[in-house]
């Protein structure tokens, strides 16, 4: 069913879609290419929620290419996600494709958004357009793991990020951890943060490390120049503080970007009075250990966040994995040995069989300066 040209054009659309990785959320990254006689006459990608969808950019460019006429006969549109059929913040792309007289539409993957979910494809077919679905489906889905998962399960895609020595330690016994990994890894973490809707950490990490947990434009390297800093979102900084211990003297309060405090008890009114306006708070139930119940946390975050990054100590990272909320782990491994007194990477139960340990698959391995970054899929 697919010609080499089809595959080339969809690959190009996927490449375009990836340009939105840092800016589209909570919308998915989508790319679109319009061809006539196997030549690209229009292309575009979704840049920002509220802004035009990928198809609209590509159609506008194609119209200009053919000299301003609205009718684009004998054309094929390649779209990485099923064209939308609903009026959201923007009108339906399926309608725009029909209006412009596109002849054939190639779709990589169906849009799992319940408001679309096959309706876009149906609208196009009912208008007499040939629609071919499934070209580079895996590749196109992988651009939006969070959007795809959340639309299907109402839960966010969860990545556990860790930095460790060769002997799997995250700090010396006295808590000193600056720096285990090198500048290249730390810059990569900044990019990772910039791609996520929310970062989650525990109050212990905040009390010990006093982190900022923000995206620092000057550390993003080429990315900041390429995107223009104004377009970069700051992820929501989520602090799990079951006993409401955190005070606004923590450094993260002094950085103006959203914070969500999640506790099982209330904070004193005197404390709440000191919070800047970008701080919000929710109370959730505790689990059997008195910690914030992760089921409640992820159900809450799943209402608005596609992808969540866990940047926490061994206990929270371990719970997220053992309670089967983790989809992926990114491990920055430094060529250092910190010794057996150092802090452990992940707290897990005392397993008695190999069958019981978490099942992990290596997806990608990359050198970053002197460190190695492992991307690992966690199977539930
Ligand atoms: C497309 N092309 O480029 C994107 C689509 O609020 P809106 O109007 O921006 O709609 C957002 C929804 O539209 C989003 O949840 C997803 O289902 C779809 N995204 N669809 O045809 C695009 N970004
Ligand atoms: Zn659309």
TrEMBL record:
InterPro entries with a match to the protein in the record: APOBEC/CMP_deaminase_Zn-bd (IPR016192), CMP_dCMP_dom (IPR002125), Cytidine_deaminase-like (IPR016193), DHFR-like_dom_sf (IPR024072), EF_Hand_1_Ca_BS (IPR018247), Eubact_RibD (IPR004794), RibD_C (IPR011549), RibDG_C (IPR002734)
> Which positions fall inside the CMP/dCMP-type deaminase domain?
4-132
CDD domains referenced in this protein's UniProt entry, alphabetically: Riboflavin_deaminase-reductase (cd01284)
Annotated NCBIfam families:
eubact_ribD (TIGR00326), ribD_Cterm (TIGR00227)
Q: Which organism is it from?
A: Shewanella eurypsychrophilus
Tell me the pathway: Cofactor biosynthesis; riboflavin biosynthesis; 5-amino-6-(D-ribitylamino)uracil from GTP: step 3/4; Cofactor biosynthesis; riboflavin biosynthesis; 5-amino-6-(D-ribitylamino)uracil from GTP: step 2/4
Note on how the cofactor is bound: Binds 1 zinc ion.
Q: Which UniProt keywords apply?
A: Hydrolase, Metal-binding, Multifunctional enzyme, NADP, Oxidoreductase, Riboflavin biosynthesis, Zinc
The entry sums up its family as follows:
In the N-terminal section; belongs to the cytidine and deoxycytidylate deaminase family. In the C-terminal section; belongs to the HTP reductase family.
Q: Which PROSITE patterns does the record match to this protein?
A: CYT_DCMP_DEAMINASES_1, CYT_DCMP_DEAMINASES_2, EF_HAND_1
Give the GO molecular function terms: 5-amino-6-(5-phosphoribosylamino)uracil reductase activity; diaminohydroxyphosphoribosylaminopyrimidine deaminase activity
Q: Which cofactor does it need?
A: Zn(2+)
| Pfam families on file | dCMP_cyt_deam_1 (PF00383), RibD_C (PF01872)
Record-listed E.C. numbers: 3.5.4.26, 1.1.1.193
The identity of this protein, by name, is: Riboflavin biosynthesis protein RibD
Catalytic activity field: 5-amino-6-(5-phospho-D-ribitylamino)uracil + NADP(+) = 5-amino-6-(5-phospho-D-ribosylamino)uracil + NADPH + H(+); 2,5-diamino-6-hydroxy-4-(5-phosphoribosylamino)-pyrimidine + H2O + H(+) = 5-amino-6-(5-phospho-D-ribosylamino)uracil + NH4(+)
Its function?
Converts 2,5-diamino-6-(ribosylamino)-4(3h)-pyrimidinone 5'-phosphate into 5-amino-6-(ribosylamino)-2,4(1h,3h)-pyrimidinedione 5'-phosphate.
The transmembrane residues are: none
